[in-house]
Structures are given as C-alpha cells and as structure tokens.
Amino acid sequence: MTVKKRFDGSSSTYFAVCPYLKFNKWIAASESPPNGVQTFKNPFGVVEVFLGSVFAMANIIVLVKQVPDTNARIVLSGDRVDLSAVKKVMSPYDEFAVETALQHRESSGGEVTAITVGSTGADKVLKDAKAIGVDHIVRIDCDAQLDSNALQSILASVVSSLGADVVYCGKSAADTGAGSTGPGLAERLGWASVSNTIGVSFGDQLSVITPSSTGNARISVPLPAVVSCDKGNIKVRKPNVKGIMQAKRAQVDVRSVDVPASTVSVVAHSMPPAKPAGKSYQGGAAAAEVAQLLRDEANVI
C-alpha cells in the first residue's frame, strides 16, 4: 500500500493505492501523513492496510501560446500584420514543454495544468494540450496586446494562485522570439530558472541538460523552478482518439485578472526587404568573382 499526497492549492488529499487488492481511493487530509494501520471500505468489504511510502505529488504547470503557423504566408494590411486568414497552432517549443511536463507527471505523479493567455480563440491550443494528456486547461482571459512585463505579471499571479511546484514553457515563442517569459516569470516568483533545456530528469530536484560553450552541461535545479525547453532529443507524443474526444468535451477554466498597463507598444509592422535576384555563373573563369561575392555579399567565407 502506498499513499500519495496531492496539493491543489487550497487543500490536500492522499491517494491510497493497493495493487494486490485493486484498491484505489482518495482520502481526506489530516494534520499528519496517514501512516500506520488504517481502515477503508472498498468494493470487496472493509480492509485494514498499512499506509507507508508517503510522498508529495507534483503540481505541474505548462505554458502554451497560440501563434501563426510557421509555414503560413504573412501579409500586411496597412501597417499591421493581417492574421485573419492564417491558421493558428501551438508554438513549436511549447510542444516540447508539454511533453516534458507529461514525463514529469509520469515519473513523479501529480497533475499537469496547461495555461494560455488570450480570448476564446486561444481555447484551441488548450484543447490540443488536453488531447495529448494534460489534466486541466486554464485560459487567462485577455484580448489586449501585452508586452513582456505585463504578460509575466499576470502569469505570475495565476501560477501563484494555483500553488505550482514547477512551470515548463518553450524557450521562445514562434511569433515574437523574445525568449523572456520563462526567466521573467521566475524572477517575479522568486524561483530558480533554467533555459534552453534539452533533457530533464525528475526527483526532489530537477537535473537538466543545457548546451554550453564546451558541450552539454548537467545542472541540478532546486524546486520550485521555471524551466524553458528546447528541442533536444524529445519526441513529442501524438494525440489518440480517446484523447481527442476527451479534449472536445473538456471545459476550459477561464480566469480574469487585473492586467497591468504595457510600457512597450508596437508602432507599425513592415515586411523585410525583398531578396535581390540570384546570380548565375558558369566556367572556371568566374571562380575569383564568385569567391569575392561569397565573402563580401553572402558572408559565408
């Protein structure tokens, strides 16, 4: 018999597991862990069992963002990008964060909550996360354009209210590429922070692998922590039919927060300058000119 402790931010419960009796039951929390002989009623009658091996189950949060499809053609309308006809997807690095969060749950127990910020259209990215296995989905209701400071502030407020032990996110979003959400959130929470992780091992603290100037470095990270995930060797799982059906029925927990004013605003969007037409050369006589162009214009040699 084992007992697992679960924190949900407001109260604690324990999960009693007895595989030989096929017995699983949530029991109310008490002042101290329920070790010793306890009596429970189950479908087979009343059973006295010894409860031991009590350990905390992780409250895991993963941040996801809805972004334009990275293969979409972007167009301007006036001085703003027009995304009305562009397909929206989960930011690719966030997919690695979701997979890491699910692996953490499988290793240590607990529950995974996916959080996004946006209007009702952002529910799709939460349903995508639900389809591959997260337990809960939360949307912070906000339709405003937020700078990094404002975004990190509202995320810190909700993460604190949920009583998280660890937060996973992508190393950067595909639309802005700022890479500031993870470190900025950790700063506001007063937590440890590690970025560009390509591998994570789970325990009382995390052991992560990140690239360094001399190769890969393994770093021990105390919890609570915010971990920003890179691709590495992580293979993102695909949703199955059961997960897709559960996601369709899942209810999004919509939360309202006080949104601080952004101090940075976008003045205008513009397309990058068009690439010049390519040049073609034949024969060895042009080798010197080709080498000069590769060095002076292409900057590849």
Question: In words, what does this structure look like?
Answer:
The chain has 301 residues and is an alpha/beta fold. The protein has two domains: 55 residues, no CATH class; 198 residues, HUPs (Rossmann fold). It contains six helices and 19 strands. The strands form five sheets. Strands 14-18-13-6-11-12-19 form a seven-stranded parallel beta sheet, with helices on both faces. Strands 3-2-1-5-4 form a five-stranded mixed beta sheet, with no helix packed on it. Helix 2 links the parallel strand 11 and strand 12. The radius of gyration is 24 Å and the shape is globular. The N terminus is likely disordered.
Q: Which range does the strand content fall in?
A: 35-45%
Q: Report strand order across the widest sheet.
A: 14-18-13-6-11-12-19
How many domains? Answer: 2
Number of strands: 19
What structural category arises from helix and sheet content? Answer: alpha/beta
One letter per element, helices H and strands E, the order comes to: EEEEEEEEEEHEHEHEHEEEEEHEH
Largest sheet: 7 strands, parallel
Question: What's the gyration radius in Å?
Answer: 24 Å
Task: Let me know the average pLDDT.
Answer: 81
Output the CATH topology of the largest domain: Rossmann fold
Named at the architecture level, the CATH assignment of the largest domain is: 3-Layer(aba) Sandwich
How many helices? The count is 6
| Uncertain stretches | 1-55
Layout of helices and strands:
Layout: E1 2-7, E2 12-18, E3 23-28, E4 36-42, E5 45-56, E6 58-63, E7 66-68, E8 75-77, E9 80-82, E10 88-90, H1 92-108, E11 110-118, H2 123-131, E12 136-141, H3 148-162, E13 166-170, H4 181-189, E14 192-197, E15 199-201, E16 206-212, E17 215-221, E18 225-229, H5 241-249, E19 253-255, H6 287-296
Parallel strand pairs: 1-5, 6-11, 6-13, 11-12, 12-19, 13-18, 14-18
Antiparallel strand pairs: 1-2, 2-3, 4-5, 7-10, 8-9, 15-16, 16-17
Helix pairs in contact: 2-5, 3-4
